Each structure stands twice: as C-alpha cells, then as structure tokens.
User: Fold this.
Amino acid sequence: MLFNKKFDLIFSLGEACSCSQILRKCRLQFYSYPFDWLFGSDILTRAKILADDYKGFIDFEDLEDFGQTNKAPANLCEIYYNKKNNIHFNHDFAYGKTLQETYPKVREKYDRRAERQLKQIEQSNKILFVYVQIPPNREEVSDETLAEVRNVLQKRFPKQEITLLYLYCNYDNKNFELKEVSDEIVKAEYDYDGYIKELPYEVNRKALLKLFCKIKISTKFMDVKNLFRRLIFVTKSFFRGIL
Assistant:
C-alpha cells in the first residue's frame, strides 16, 4: 500500500506545475527536476523521455515559437514547444529576446536538472513517480497505460523499486477514492479542481494535502534545513488532524 512505504525519492512527472508545487508544500521534494514546471505531452511520453535519459528533450532545432505567457509585464516569457514531443516551456525563455540568445542558458539548466535526477534515481532504493492530471483534462489514463508507464520506468531502472501514483480529477467524486491498480500502481480519483476560471489548470491544494501528507519519505536527500522543515510540516499536520 502507498502509505506503508517510505520512499527515498519522490518527484513529478507532470502534468503541469501543480504536482511539483504540492510535493514541495508537503516537503516531499527538495530539488528541481526537468518536468516540474512544464506543460504538454502525456504521462507515457514523459516516462519514455526520462527512460531515454532526456535525449532530444530540448534540442534547439525542435523548438518552435508559441507566443508569450499571459502575465504581468515583469513576468512575461517567450513560450516555446518541442514539436516532436509537444512539451511546452512556459517559464524559461526571457521575453523580447531571440531563441538564439536565450537557448544556451536554458539548455544548461535542464541538462543540470536531468543529471541531478538521474543520479539520485540511481542512488535510491524506493522511488515514487507522481502525476497529477490538470482538472480540465477529462481523458482518464487507462490502467493498461499506467502499467506500460511503470514498465518503461522499471526497465530503465531495474535495481530500483518503482511506485507510480496517478491522480485524476473526477468531478462526480467529492471524497478520496484510492484504487490499487497493482502493488506498484495507485490511482486516486476525486474532485480536486481549484475552480478558478482565470487559471483552469489550478488545483485545490488543500484537498490534495489530505493525500500527500500521508506519504512518507526518508532523509536520504535531505539537508538539515529541509529535515527541519519536514519535521515542522509533519508536526503541524498531526495537530491539525490531517495525519
């Protein structure tokens, strides 16, 4: 069962920013990884990208202009997407500059994150891959596809014990419904929409806390600061009656 395991490493496969944000809020993720703030593609494509060690993930010749982010002028970015895998980079390329100018620094950042992630995976025993589907996406991923996702990851990392957690926003379900697809695959279905018209991809993080605060993580990749923050979070969760 998901809550009976203690994972060495937990990180986001997507679908957008919300997954990494809730993991950080619950003090389950302490570093930045390639999929944290990206949008586009699907869970199986992302698993294959990771299993291929991010080769072709952000090659210059595959990037095409997708306009600008709809934010305040100070936070504007140029959006590019990879036409081969449909990954959208919304927060990386400086506004008003050409791709030729900004690409080297962005590429360096993602190479660094990919190297960190792959190294930490190799150093871990138990790993939890998490995918929080954005509320507007009504196409539920099948159990067969989830099994394929895990098989892709397990084949690439045969020495690790890999668990997959998939969250699907079911508007008809107001309470948690956990389903064990297998011993290594868990699906959570319920309504976690944030109901923010201007930000349809936002989720209700308070609702997600009920699930994520129960997940356990080891201290393998924690420094003193993150260990202290994790202890504070667990303590507060306990006294609030969440745990």
